[in-house]
Design a protein that fits this description.
- By secondary structure, this protein is an alpha+beta fold.
- The protein has a single domain, classed as Trna Endonuclease, Chain: A, domain 1, CATH 3.40.1350.
- 30% of the residues lie in helices and 38% in strands.
- It contains 2 helices and 5 strands.
- The radius of gyration is 14 Å and the shape is globular.
Length: 125
């Protein structure tokens, strides 16, 4: 699968995750917040809690569930990016924060499943 195809699949998975979170009452704050540390896919408000959301897609034949693919290095990078977001957006500085992971997995039959893990990790733990 080419680079463009993977990017398009990732964007579709991100949109699928976004719609799921909105259906569950979260309010969009930002999408694809880019920093020198990397990108935060979705930033959403869940009542008064600011959720930094990493969306992961895994296709047919993947060895690891998408939700389990956020390693310690990625967690640290997301934490640093979240700190920059908070520094640039003072209105959110005093909100409780969490890091969620939404995994989108495609099975061999072409079906898609979505798993959402709230408070999936804490950078630095």
């Amino acid at each position: 699968m080419g680079r463009i195809d993977r990017r398009a699949l990732g964007k579709r998975a991100e949109e699928f995750a976004f719609r799921h979170l909105v259906r569950h009452g979260l309010q969009p704050v930002a999408r694809n917040f880019r920093t020198r540390f990397g990108e935060i896919d979705l930033i959403m408000l869940d009542r008064d809690c600011l959720a930094f959301v990493e969306v992961r897609y895994r296709g047919t034949g993947a060895y690891v569930d998408a939700r389990l693919s956020v390693d310690a290095r990625k967690q640290r990078r997301l934490g640093a990016a979240a700190e920059l977001f908070l520094a640039r957006n003072a209105v959110f500085r005093h909100h409780p924060c969490r890091f969620d992971v939404v995994g989108v997995d495609r099975d061999r039959d072409g079906g898609v499943s979505l798993g959402w893990v709230q408070d999936a990790f804490r950078p630095g733990d």
